[in-house]
Amino acid sequence: MPSSPLELPFQMGQVLLENGAEISRVQETMERVARAYDIEGFDVYVLTNSIFATATEDGVSHSTTFRYVPGTAVHLGRIMAVNQLSREIAEGLHTPGEAMKRLSDIRTLPYSPFLSRMLCCAVGSAAFSFLFGGSWVDAVVAFFCGLVLEAYLDFTARKKLSKFLTNLSASALVTLCGAAFFLLGLGNNMDKIIIGSIIRLVPGVALTNSIRDFFSGDYLSGAIRMLDALLVGGCIAVGVGFIIRVLSLLTGGALL
Q1: β partners of residue 46
Q2: Helices and strands: H and E segment counts in the chain
Q3: Which member of 33, 132, 144, 240 has the greatest number of CB atoms within 10 A?
Q4: Percentage of the chain with pLDDT > 70?
Q5: How far apart are CA 3 and CA 20, in angstroms?
Q6: Over the stretch 59-88, which tens digit does the pLDDT of each residue have?
Q7: Alpha-carbon distance 179 to 167, whole Å?
Q8: Integer CA distances (angstroms), 228 to 4, 50, 84, 180, 239, in order
Q9: Using an 8 Å Cβ cutoff, are 53 and 30 in contact?
């Protein structure tokens, strides 16, 4: 049943896992909700791509497995909303039906508008370019590279391109964009332009969560996320290195 107390922690855990929460948070939230609704014999094991849970309801043992699609974008707003809902459940403020309805609303929380994401990506690229020692001209160039990058990432998301191909092609595109400006005489430090522009692609959340999983004793999940972050970083390095190498050969080393 949709409003079953047993179903609710499973669904909440799935939403957290889909949106980038660390393993310990998923497990703690599910156990908190199970305790709040007096679910007996509740036991859960969480990995980065699945949830295994068993419990007893009305004297009947139940088990379920939820799987999520690897590569789902991080949505901290949904994670925060599920955390708040779990606390309200623990305080006895919601029946299972009410909580499930709230959870359905949380699932549909939208991402930031496209124009806002473009502006944030561009400003972030410019700020990091300047922070890493670039000039104000480098920051301006990185700003426009950030606009191009976010537009391309939105396109690949709609086309459902794989994470690794997205990072490989996006890093190559933003490097090509920065090189084009640099060869036109706009910009003083090619490396600072590129560093600022690719910050949007760096898997900081995955890396942070992997370390937190290690500290929580979830070594398998931590290793999986660490490997994922390293592979994404490798894709970024390959994309940037390939474009720089090709353009250097074509321009006689002008970019080096």
Answers
A1: 51
A2: 10, 3
A3: 33
A4: 90
A5: 25
A6: 666 666 666 555 567 888 999 999 999 999
A7: 18
A8: 35, 16, 29, 31, 17
A9: yes
